[in-house]
Amino acid sequence: MSYEVAGWLRPPPEATRATRQRHRHVAAGVPSRPALLALSPLEGAGESERGPPPFQLSRASKDIAFGSIAGMVSKVFEHPFDLVKVRLQTQSAEEPMYRGAFDCFRQTYLKEGARGLFRGLSMPIFGATLENATLFFTYNFVQGQLRHASGMSVPRSSDDQQASGGGGGGGGASTSSLDADAENPLPMSYLAVAAAAAGSATSLVLTPVELIKCKMQVQMVARELEVVAAASAAAASSSTASSSLASPSATVSATAPGQALSSASFRGLDGPVSLFMRTIRADGLRGLWLGQTGTLLRETGGGIAWFLGFEWACRTLITRKRKLWGRNGVTKKDLTSLELIGAGALAGISYNVVLFPADSVKSTMQTEQELRGHQPGFKRSGFFQTFRHIYATRGLRGLYAGCAVTCMRSAPSSALIFLMYNKLEALADKHGI
């Protein structure tokens, strides 16, 4: 076993025994043997002589790892809010089931329990891992390419400089985005390009995940609509035959479909794998990207608002701290957790307000087969046709249905993502990982 990496591994047992014995000989005035004069690899080595850590993550590895962790944690918190948003976006304009976000939350909890609020969580967690890893990786990668194209130097970590003999200049594999932004901050226009590229790339990953998620979130609603339609049809046929022979059970089912569903609970509902395979069998692989136009618009424009909202808030706070402290060496590492949370919350609200109608159209397209596929003459609508239908039947309010509850979950969720990502990156820089 090698003990050459000082400061990272324990000294070999032989060296430890030799050191203790040497100290005893020195205290007694007895000359030490040459073999016992060998110092431990940890002893006498200054900070400047310590070698590099046993491993070092590349820039891409950090983006993927930290983005994935932050995305998974935030998704568990925000999922009930997202479920309410989807159900508000996709309910019928003629016969809406919910009066608002709180009513939707209350009805979902009463009819389906706490489990119903987390319906379809498995796909969003998987999607959040891919989404945030792709977002941060693409965002930082494009920033690096823009720095290189514009002739701006990319700072290298101290370990990279030591490995190459202290040379400066180019961008090492473990370059920290915090260091790069501190030494050579890019203009906001360059950051907008990087954010748009990150959002566009993420949309390709997100669309299939959100398709399955939305289908799972409205399954109980679709089941309830089927029960109501069947009960209404039975009651109508009974009343036409004879008013005295009307079915009491049909009347009960028509008036209280939620109670019937509550007893049946989740039995017979498709899981993510079943929905995935059913979609491929019905529409092929292309069917997984139903609603891609809406996702692309939302993620590209929303990505610009998300990253630029965070960067603007951070730069404003950094400028303020520089004036208060009277020095220029203030970076994102000096921002407190509360300041990062505030910047992240602003980013989350900006992301949703900018292009929320595109998300409403996308959700409607992805769930219309589940909710209205049983109706005679059903035919899928395109993006612009769906947009016109929502605006004609529900107006601007319909395009922003669920926006308030989405901002309520997006603000703390985005704050959590940026806080965790920046803290993990600062921790990795501190330990040279």
Automatic annotation (TrEMBL):
PANTHER family in the record: MITOCHONDRIAL BASIC AMINO ACIDS TRANSPORTER-RELATED, MITOCHONDRIAL ORNITHINE TRANSPORTER 1
Similarity field: Belongs to the mitochondrial carrier (TC 2.A.29) family.
Subcellular localization: Mitochondrion membrane
Membrane topology reported for the UniProt record: Multi-pass membrane protein
Signal peptide residue numbers: none
Record field: compositional bias (Gly residues): 164-173
Principal cellular location given in the protein's record: mitochondrion
UniProt cross-references to Pfam families, sorted A to Z: Mito_carr
Keywords: Membrane, Mitochondrion, Repeat, Transmembrane, Transmembrane helix, Transport
Keyword Transmembrane helix carried by entry: yes
Any single GO BP term: mitochondrial L-ornithine transmembrane transport
GO cellular component: mitochondrial membrane
Solcar repeat residue intervals: 58-145, 186-316, 335-427
Region entry Disordered, spans: 151-179
Any GO molecular function: L-ornithine transmembrane transporter activity
Protein's name in the database: Mitochondrial carrier
Lineage: Eukaryota, Fungi, Dikarya, Basidiomycota, Ustilaginomycotina
